[in-house]
Write a structure and sequence with these properties.
- By secondary structure, the chain is α/β, with parallel strands linked by helices.
- The protein has two domains: 185 residues, Quinone Oxidoreductase, Chain A, domain 1; 136 residues, Rossmann fold.
- It contains eleven helices and 18 strands.
- Strands 3, 5, 6, 9, 10, 17 and 18 form a seven-stranded mixed beta sheet that branches. Strands 13-12-11-14-15-16 form a six-stranded parallel beta sheet, with helices on both faces. A three-stranded antiparallel beta sheet has the order 2-1-4, with no helix packed on it.
- The longest helix is centred in the middle third of the chain and has 13 residues.
- The N and C termini lie close together (10 Å).
- This is alcohol dehydrogenase.
- Keywords: Metal-binding, Oxidoreductase, Zinc.
- Belongs to the zinc-containing alcohol dehydrogenase family.
Length: 347
């Protein structure tokens, strides 16, 4: 099969080619629960750039060369002898983690904290290819309204955004505010989820005018330009108290300190993006009673819930398609901020 393969790390992201488009061996079924999916779409994520940079080397054990791509959807191509409930040809979206289902975390629905797991595209070959090896427990059948290439990024970007927005929606009341920092690939999904799940007013903070325009179409009630005065602007919108919830899809640079500053006392700061540091005197955390919440990719059940919202048209992805052979173009466009929404590779 054809695949876009990572052969070497590039810490400064200066190479003309991050991956090489080449022939590799087809994935093979070795376990009864294995499934091979013919890729219909593979999302291009900022995490992929971090992988190219080598940031994940300290977190996962992976040997180069290997195939990135952890946001995948397509059609069932082949199934192991123990697979039930799906058949060849079924359109599916893949939860990003492949687990056995036997550990206590799995049985509680905490897929991302499973004792025994494989994460295609992170610590195993992923979906920047014509075919992907995954497992039966990871697959969700798609309704006729949703095409694989249109939903692939939901498996990480959408699922992560959904998990954070769902947490926030559980305590947000009418008359309260939620601030979303970053209206890009994850943020524009999170805004729509918030609009679907709660009645709080949504403030969106971003430095890019096009991203703010996108945020408005996604359901934002207030737009704030990230120009160094976003804390003051957010406090003004909320009557000086700050937002009861802040969801930070940036998580680096000045966004972290400013996100905490625009969080109301007794409010919640949900950090999704990474690369920065949280530095806060303990006395300030005590006196303000702010809650800081980390957010990892969501569970299988949450991906099912997100697909229900997508099926009803309550959440829509803004995507830009690239051929699989143009994976480097997509990665460079993402790196240089030329993508508003999500990029998707189509074999």
């Amino acid at each position: 099969m054809k695949a876009a393969v990572l052969h070497a790390f590039d810490e400064k992201l200066t190479a003309k080619e991050f991956v090489k488009y080449e022939d590799v061996a087809d994935p093979k079924i070795t376990r009864p629960s294995d499934v091979v999916v013919r890729i219909g779409g593979a999302g291009v994520c900022r995490t992929d750039l971090h992988i190219v940079e080598g940031i994940w080397r300290s977190k996962v054990d992976v040997n180069l060369p290997y195939i990135m791509g952890h946001e995948n959807a397509g059609w069932v191509e082949a199934i192991g002898p123990g697979v039930e409930g799906i058949k060849v040809g079924d359109p599916v979206i893949c939860h990003p983690l492949v687990t056995s289902g036997h550990c206590l975390a799995c049985r509680r629905g905490n897929d991302m904290h499973a004792d025994d797991s494989v994460f295609p595209g992170i610590n195993a070959n992923g979906g920047y290819a014509q075919y992907l090896l995954t497992g039966q427990r990871s697959l969700i059948k798609l309704p006729k309204t949703l095409a694989p290439k249109d939903v692939a990024p939901y498996t990480d970007a959408g699922l992560t955004a959904y998990r954070a927005a769902k947490k926030a929606s559980r305590h947000l009341l009418p008359g309260q505010y939620v601030a979303v920092i970053g209206a890009g690939g994850l943020g524009h999904i999170g805004i729509q989820v918030l609009a679907a799940l709660c009645a709080a007013e949504i403030i969106v903070v971003d430095r890019d005018d096009k991203s703010l325009e996108l945020a408005k179409t996604c359901g934002a009630h207030h737009l704030v330009k990230a120009d160094g005065n976003e804390v003051e602007a957010t406090l003004a919108l909320t009557g000086g108290r700050g937002a009861e919830a802040v969801i930070d899809f940036v998580g680096e640079g000045e966004a972290v300190a400013r996100g905490l500053a625009m969080t109301a006392n007794d409010g919640f700061y949900y950090v999704v993006g990474y690369g920065g540091k949280i530095e806060l005197p303990t006395i300030d955390l005590i006196t303000t009673e702010k809650t800081i919440v980390g957010n990892l990719v969501g569970s299988y059940a949450e991906l099912v819930e997100l697909m229900k919202l997508a099926d009803r048209g309550l959440v829509q992805l803004h995507t830009k398609e690239y051929k699989l052979s143009a994976a480097n173009d997509a990665l460079h466009d993402l790196h240089h901020g030329r993508i508003h929404g999500r990029a998707v590779l189509v074999p």
